[in-house]
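Input record (one chain):
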Amino acid sequence: MGSTKRVGFKEINNLAIPSIIAGVSEPLLSVVDTAVVGNISVNSIEALAAVGIAGSFIAAIVWVLGQTRVAISSIIAQYVGEERLNAVASLPSQMIAINGALSLVLYFVTVFFARQVFQLYNADGLILEYATSYYKIRALGLPFSLFIFTIFGVFTGLQNTFWPMVISVIGAAVNIILDFLLVYGIEGYLEPMHVEGAAYASVIAQGVMAFLALLLFVKKTPFKFFVKGPFNNEIRRLGSLSANLFMRALALHVALYLANSYATEYGKEYIAAQTICFQIWLFFAFFVDGYASVGSIISGKQKGAREFSGLKLLVKDLNKYAIIVASILMLICFLFYKQIGTVFSNDIAVLEVFYAVFWMVLIMQPLNAIAFVYDGVFKGLAEAAVLRNTVFVATFVGFIPALLVCDYFDFKLIGVWIAFSVWMLFRSGILYVFFKRNLLKTLQV
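The corresponding structure, as predicted from the sequence alone:
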């Protein structure tokens, strides 16, 4: 059974706070892109809608292929718990090479078919032109993103969230500065680049982050950057974990694709408002995910050390902290409800749709917190098949039927967020029940 020692508040937050800061830096880039693009002087609604559609597709690609970050973090954490880190010495560099090759293939394939992809999102006219142009530039950052994700997975597996935080904060700062410079330009010196400027800002920031990640990987981890054969014994398990998480991410993005596709079909004001709502939802998700990351980091180590008796206490504490954080964020947004909308757009039609649905985004947050904590714990324990099946059920039994019913009754964007609420209820409920009834007993056998 191992130790029954409870993981202390200080230890949890020493890992969680840097993880929160690192986590929110990624959606912060999208939030800033959304706010900056939403306030340009020419075709701002179309630009905002295009960035939302293209950004959603980019997030889908990165999240799907970036699941190796979770897998490698889980495996390394277990070897830290077993005190056998030398056994996986060759694993990180091999996964960096594999991810690099995959990202290059994906870049060329998706850039070639970018226009057709966004037509599937019901984009047309100026929105389609902007989305295609934005994506073709942003896609240059795909290899950088997957490289960064892999190295972040190595650091979190080593129980270190500090250096990912440093890299993320620097990247976010570079992106924000370049957003304003390139999108709006500098009179007399630099012509405004509008939507394309936002894309270039993101790519340059990702390049800076990739360089820093490489430097810190070499200096601050016990692993070597150079690829050596033969394949590590854990490559097969890592591949299996990644494949299950890959399928989970695909199912997850079916929901995100349908949400954006239906919102686009309702009209440009609706997809613009959906872009704002989703970026705020994503920002909250990554914020609360700091505690989910702690669940992943510590539970993986506990599994390696076979300290299962403390796992139940860990989950209870993480749920409590995550719900508190989510509730605080929710209350702050209710206090500044009107002001938040005007940060992203000054179009009356867009704001009217946004204000009608934003309250639903907010009241979901405590439920989201529970789902994300269990997600993190199951990832750390390498229970990827359970996570895959959960999201499949949540998407195809919960989200899609709810969306179709709401569309039938013409609820429009409110219907989209009702479907999201059902989706998160399924995800949190299934994992809660499975953890309580099955997982702890299975691990201790």
